[in-house]
Specification:
The protein is mostly beta strands and 529 residues long. The chain folds into 2 domains: 397 residues, YVTN repeat-like/Quinoprotein amine dehydrogenase (Methylamine Dehydrogenase, Chain H, 7 Propeller), CATH 2.130.10.10; 94 residues, Immunoglobulin-like, CATH 2.60.40.1110. 5% of the residues lie in helices and 36% in strands. The chain is built from 4 helices and 39 strands. The strands form 10 sheets. A 5-stranded antiparallel β-sheet has the order 15-12-11-10-34, with no helix packed on it. Strands 1-30-29-28 form a 4-stranded antiparallel β-sheet, with no helix packed on it. Strands 2-3-4-5 form a 4-stranded antiparallel β-sheet, with no helix packed on it. The radius of gyration is 21 Å and the shape is globular. The N terminus is likely disordered.
């Protein structure tokens, strides 16, 4: 992986900006009123945080569906009924049995049992729930069958990876404040759990400690070694003084990185995590949302030490104040996600914003951010002009192509306000490519793999991950904007470290790269899941 990082760095330095820039201002159409039901994330103290959305295709028609947390309201599955690629977005509300739980803070899709159907890990205030996907958007409870202890805490974070050739994932479950602590809530952060597979299900969970009131966690191969470590972002509002951001080794045993390893102490109101290599050196930058300054961490060493510094200020991603209105109080960031909104070949950054509830020292009218990356690597604010600058209390979100036209659409969950649905209608956007991975068994969708795309000499890298954001995630196709490039090639670094061959890619198409033993096949525009 060191060679991959060096190669990517050289390509980036020599060819940055070679692709023809596109003058396409992002534009979104608000289709929230077309949703079949008004969905609001609501509730008291326990639902000041959370409010995530899981995005996955549960009926195998190629159009992603949504499972949205409701807090005190029931969680809802919204089935994507968009009739054809590029058509206006449409959804129905099928109400499958079992999914309409209350107390839900968020959910993440992944294939736990390797049967090809995506399952759901549902986070709650109280007992969590695990649902096995049966196809056609039908589910059955699976926590007992898979011996996954549901817990009884206040779960706000989740991430998963596969260790070696394991048939099932190892996953981390993050909890917020220990509601049973009589001395809380301040300084009363709960511990977390790590679930490893064993037998036909899961072993009793290991404790991840200390816990510092996490609101997001993400497994990431941050140094390109093939080893997945767990980044945990924590909320200093409740840990007060004794907490910090955390990084844990998970394999072969749990071990927290510390100062002696090069991990520097950082204290944030950590809300959400996203990772993406935006510098072209083969190592992901890590975006972390907070109150006031948002962070964008970049690895500063090449010796294997996890030493980071924030490059948010020079890159223009601090987004510390509202950009419309006359608010002088600082912003509060929640969900964060990279995605190439205008397909110009440069990743952009969406941040959901909103006051916790009535915090007087933070902005009340706090618009969501759409930060568009420019040819020089600087990000500029386009949220208001693009039509996505809602000033309601944003929480979880998803930047994802919902109608298979290659343009990334947007879903935003809002506290005490209706769910927002935006269709990307940007004109003059660039070319694109979407890719999904398959393996024969176990880790069916190759979580932990890296997809590398080269177009017009510029290399882009994606790590297949489960976790991060704020209380929700996605499973499906990885999206690449290609700018003006009319050809591209792709290869996969599989989770076991095997580098597949370079293959030609169909521009403006959906590709599935499947591996069976030593053989890779690439299929375009199918099969779908």
């Amino acid at each position: 992986m060191t060679n991959l990082r060096s190669c990517c760095r050289l390509i980036w330095v020599v060819l940055l900006g070679v692709a023809t820039p596109l003058a396409a201002d992002p534009a979104f159409r608000d289709l929230s009123d077309t949703l079949p039901v008004t969905h609001v994330y609501a509730g008291g103290w326990e639902h000041f945080v959370g409010g995530g959305v899981a995005v996955f295709d549960c009926d195998s028609n190629g159009f992603p569906d949504l499972y949205v947390a409701g807090g005190d309201n029931p969680a809802r599955l919204l089935r994507n009924t968009t009739p054809s690629a590029g058509a206006p977005l449409s959804f129905d509300f099928p109400e499958p049995p079992g999914l309409g739980l209350t107390g839900v803070t968020g959910a993440y899709p992944l294939d736990i049992d390797g049967d090809g159907h995506l399952d759901l890990f549902v986070m709650r205030v109280g007992a969590n729930a695990v649902f096995r996907g049966l196809g056609n958007c039908q589910f059955e409870p699976a926590d007992a069958a898979w011996t996954i202890a549901p817990g009884a805490g206040w779960t706000t974070a989740f991430s998963a990876t596969w260790e070696g050739a394991a048939a099932r994932p190892t996953f981390a479950v993050g909890n917020y404040v220990d509601r049973a602590d009589p001395n809380g809530p301040f300084g009363a952060c709960d511990t977390h759990q790590l679930f490893r597979p064993g037998g036909d299900g899961y072993l009793p969970p290991e404790t991840i400690a200390p816990g510092f009131c996490t609101l997001s966690m993400l497994f990431t191969d941050w140094r390109g070694s093939g080893q997945q470590d767990l980044w945990i972002s924590n909320d200093r509002h409740y840990y007060v003084t004794e907490g910090r951001e955390q990084l844990f080794r998970v394999s072969p045993v749990l071990q927290e990185y510390g100062d002696g390893d090069g991990w520097l102490t950082q204290k944030l109101w950590g809300m959400g995590i996203a990772s993406r290599d935006i510098t072209g050196d083969g190592a992901p930058e890590i975006a972390v949302t907070s109150m006031a300054d948002q962070k964008l961490y970049s690895l500063t060493t090449s010796d294997g030490a996890p030493t980071y510094q924030s490059i948010a200020w020079p890159r223009g991603t601090t987004a510390q104040l509202p950009y419309i209105g006359d608010e002088g109080r600082p912003s509060t960031g929640w969900h964060v996600q990279f995605g190439d909104v205008d397909n110009d070949g440069r990743d952009d950054l969406f941040i959901a914003k909103g006051n916790v509830d009535q915090m007087p020292d933070s902005a009340m009218a706090d618009p969501d951010n759409l930060l568009m990356q420019q040819p020089d690597g600087i990000f500029l604010e386009y949220g208001d002009g693009a039509g996505v600058g809602s000033t309601a209390r944003g929480r979880g979100a998803a930047v994802t192509d919902l109608n298979r036209d290659g343009l990334l659409d947007l879903v935003v969950v809002q506290r005490r306000a209706p769910l927002k649905l935006y269709q990307n209608v940007t004109t003059g956007a660039g070319n694109w490519l979407k890719l999904r991975l398959e393996q024969a068994a176990g880790n069916r969708h190759a979580v932990g793999a890296k997809i590398e795309v080269q177009a017009d000499g510029v290399s882009a890298l994606r790590e297949v991950q489960v976790g991060g954001g704020h209380a929700g995630g996605q499973a499906g196709f990885a999206h690449f904007g290609l700018g003006a490039a009319t050809s591209a090639r792709v290869r996969v670094i599989w989770p076991d470290g095997t580098a597949g061959p370079w293959a030609s890619a169909e521009v403006n198409g959906h590709g599935v790269i499947a591996r069976a033993g030593e053989i890779e096949t690439v299929t375009w525009d199918g099969p779908k899941y």
